[in-house]
Amino acid sequence: MKLGTLLLRNAAIGLSQLEAALRNQVLYGGRLGTNLVELGYIDLELLSAYLAELSGFPIATPTLLDQADPSLMERLGADEAHRLRAIPLGYLGEGGTVAVGLVEPTDGKVVDQVASRLGSHVTPYVVPELRALYYLEKLFGLPRRARFVRSARAADGTDGEITGERRRTQPAMGMVMPPALTLEPRRRRPSSQAPLAGALPLAIGYAVACERIDAATNRDQIADAFVTYAQGRCDALVVFLIRDGNALGWRGWVAPPVVPKKPIEELSLPLGGASALQSAHDAGQPFVGTPPSAARPVEKQLWAALATQPEPFAVLVVPVLVKQRAVNLVYAHITSSAPPSQLVTELVDLAARAQASYLRLIRQARGS
């Protein structure tokens, strides 16, 4: 039995709440329970109880996690702990068996890898994803991705997003593009845009990027298509998630030999105030041009993280809309020039295709 089915059967959530959580899971990732908690439909304690019922394993409570054995944590190592989402709790009795909190306690391969690393038999304990990520950060020191650092969400049946009239004014020095291109007829012409001087050759053609997004079976494939498309066309591209009034780094690419000073997944930029990101988000249309704020505080924060030198005088930000709400912002720049019209046109079309793929994946999740 699946978690959603169990929760529905016990009237812990309603069908509309399950559908909202499945939609958020498609758009923002994370496990179903994580999205239910973030939306305020259940709390972590109730989720833990249902995960224990589903898996048949005991719960890794906060008390057990706070008392995790330092020697076992050192033996497992921070990288493996994060990769496997595993937290060694301590020895059980005198037999040498180790209790380990796991996000996926029923995955035999994960259990075997943890046991091999610890050199002991393992008894799995179940721990919700959000709680595991918090304790992985607390105990091992590696930060959570920005997507999992969440503010309080509404518990009133909404999805916690800001509602009301969206601003449609465009700050000076930017240009509002026409509405997103329609998907039909599908264009399959190869890109004729030449690689940037000194940059890598084009990683994939425009037609291939279209096909990858159209055929995507999960959200990560959509983001990866944008990132691969960017290689050879621009000096940097970042795909942001939009949550709680912030643009959260998801996937990105920076042209070598530049190395970003901060991992893309740790980026969190505010959408308040005047910025190219805020303009594209509020207008629901692409922004092309000089960042609207003379001080450029948001852009400077982004450029510093990407180690961008010199600072670009013009940027491109394309929103990906689902039900007329921006769920992603695709940011790109070329340091030596303004974004060429072909890059703008193609990214706008790829964003429209991403929207269609998201809607398809949401329908599939609701029907599963």
What key phrases describe this protein's structure?
about 375 residues; alpha+beta; GMP Synthetase, Chain A, domain 3; Beta-Lactamase; seven-stranded antiparallel sheet; three-stranded mixed sheet; 14 helices; about 40% helix
Question: How would you describe the overall organization of this protein?
Answer:
Helix content is 40%, strand content 17%. The protein has 2 domains: 3-148, Type II secretion system, protein E, N-terminal domain (GMP Synthetase, Chain A, domain 3, 2-Layer Sandwich); 174-367, 2-Layer Sandwich (Beta-Lactamase), CATH 3.30.450.40. The chain has 368 residues and is an alpha+beta fold. The strands form 2 sheets. It has a 7-stranded antiparallel sheet with strand order 4-8-9-10-5-6-7, with helices on both faces. The chain is built from 14 helices and 10 strands. The protein is globular. Helix 8 (108-118) links the parallel strand 2 (97-102) and strand 3 (122-126).
